[in-house]
TrEMBL record:
This is O-fucosyltransferase family protein. It holds the Pfam family O-FucT. Coiled coil: none annotated. The chain crosses the membrane at residues 30-50. It comes from Zea mays. GO terms for biological process: fucose metabolic process. GO terms for molecular function: glycosyltransferase activity. Belongs to the glycosyltransferase GT106 family.
Amino acid sequence: MSLAGAGAAALRKPATWRRPGGRGVARRRVAVAALLLALAYAGGLLMFLLDERLSGGSVGGAAAGGLGPMVTVASSVRRRRPLPSPADAPPHAQPGSVYRSHLVFERLLPAMRDDATLASSLSASASWRRTMLMTSHYQNSGDPWMPCVNGRLTRSELPPSNGYLMIEANGGLNQQRLSVCDAVAVASLLNATLVIPTFHLNSVWRDPSKFGDIFDEDHFIETLKEHVRVVKKLPEDVLLRFNHNISSIPNMRTKAYSSPNHYVQNVLPKLLELGAVRIAPFSNRLAQSVPLNIQALRCLVNYHALRFAEPIRILSDELVGRMTKKSLLTGGKYVSVHLRFEEDMVAFSCCTYDGGWREKTEMDNARERSWRGWHDAKGHGIR
């Protein structure tokens, strides 16, 4: 008899399942046993899924006492699933030590003490700032890293200006700082006079601070005077040309991470024609990879020209003095809190910490949700 015929014959004889005794009893026992095994498997699978949802919690203890078969099945299912390597799993660190900040502190403490000693010494020269803390942590073939400004900038008489460049720095304070560095670099590329940047009023923070409220304007202008012309506002004749309406000045909308050639080919002609252009928004509007002389100018702005306004410097000195005095009671240790250390900030910075594969997965997902492939694009993101 063929398999199809045997199957049809079995379907035509349901009475054999109801016959008392003999093979009918055996079949019922097999069916019951199969049903119990199926229930145990389903229960074990359910426990396994619950176990996965509970962030690493295992099935055991009191639960295992009443669910022996299900726990056994769940364990067998778990054994079939490949487990991540222990080296890839995030360390079970105590709260507050996930990013090993205490280890960084211990490594830098001797250099911090050297800084304090040199700063308080009457015989310390102006070069005391170039101490171990600034150079010892980053070594290249045994030599300390040097500031990128050195040897990259040439000082010569500036040619006549091609016009005025205005930018609007958006984002948080860190993004605004980067925008100012890029604005000076772009002004140099265009041989333009940079108007002190304006800060976009953030809809979340609603901070009305202007450039001069945060940074020392006079120091900014003085530091850059041999490289880029900087003025606090547009001159009257230029304002008159645009009816004293800043919004009438053409906004040269520029894509993120535009190359230096883009500015020379697309923005410079308009600047020469009108005498003034603006770019808003101006966050991340210059490519990261630029010629060394342009990068050196960025560094000059970041590390020298941008100095906090005097009220902020006074307050920061008070805070440092208080931390130094108080931390003597705790062996030099203290705790600092980053008020904006949130998922979006960490994701956008593309920095990696000590969270291992779990951190990487979460941050990749956050970047994909917010920027859809930006972090994987050529020349951007993590490298």
